[in-house]
Amino acid sequence: MLNLFAQEISKLTEQMVKEGQKPYRATQLFTWIYEKKARTFDEMSDVSLKFREVLKEKYCLDLPSIHLKQESSDGTIKVLLSLSDGAKIETVLMRYSYGNAVCVSSQVGCNMGCSFCSSGRLGKQRNLTVDEMIGQLLVINQLLEDEGKGQRITHVVVMGTGEPFDNYENLMDFIRIVNHPKGLAIGARHITVSTCGIPDAIRRYAQEGLQTNLAISLHAPNNELRNQLMKINKVYPLEVLMPAVREYEKLSGRRVTYEYLLLADLNDTKENAQELIDLIKGTMGYVNLIPYNETNLCSYKRSSGNRIHLFLDYLTKGGVTATIRKEFGSDIDAACGQLRAKVEDNLL
Q1: Is 60 known to be catalytic?
Q2: pLDDT of 272-282, one tens digit each?
Q3: Which of 34, 33, 54, 58 shows the shortest CA–CA distance to 43?
Q4: N or C: which terminus of the chain has fewer CB atoms within 10 Å of its end residue's CB?
Q5: End-to-end distance of the chain based on CA atoms, in angstroms?
Q6: 336 is catalytic
Q7: Given 114, 224, 336, 344, which residue is catalytic?
Q8: How many folded domains does the chain comprise?
Q9: Given this model, what pLDDT does residue 64 score?
Q10: Mean pLDDT value across residues 123-141
């Protein structure tokens, strides 16, 4: 059965025409499942009874189920979701003063093998389907609705488990549904995709004509350090990655965010800061400094608060725009992949 949550509007329109329906039927269904939040076909009162039976026979509206939920004292919610095949994925709700952001996973597991990240410990099992990605948002929106405060998701970051560009086609359909006015109606500039750095995919994304945000998981200012932290750098070293970033900025007119995880006595020195300044010189991007969320699944330690602020000051004085990312969920299993790994290891 085809899951309607997997169909972006143009593909759903084609599907409805194949069913002998008028093209408007796709917009009608979008309105029901996203604006009116219908979860059964019987709720679709302006769809003929006959076609509702067709929908029941050929289509479904299945969503992931909550396997485990953790809530932090700061209001952050992390859920471990069960998919139809029993696979588990993580999704996180982060509450900012400007709105509610959700961190979405794009794969079950990850093959990128970053040494600081729990997500890759079990390897990639498969890509997530479009409905499994959309389902993460719908589950969180339902949790917000249940709070009774009239809130909804306002920002989406595809920064959870997986490499989004390794699931490119499904990622693009996901973005189109999230952004569509009859879909989840979240503005393009409130959508961010994070990649560990796949040059061909970055160039391809630049040509999509989107106004979304792109973040590069950089984490090191030289190849020696980045090889240690991110095995992808052995395939696409910085001298290959950075030209793709510059081309992205030129084609899209959008600046990138460089994500930089600060690890004690490894990549947080004054010399590292100067290398970073030199590396990104001439780009429009800015640096998002990330305090490391320590986990017993990895041996790295977070930089001290003093070292983090010294690093920030050095970047700023060097003409680089930089910020320190706000921390969320420090009292729960907030690190990417941490909750799933604990469950898989029977620690929870």
Answers
A1: no
A2: 999 999 999 98
A3: 33
A4: N
A5: 34
A6: yes
A7: 336
A8: 2
A9: 98
A10: 97
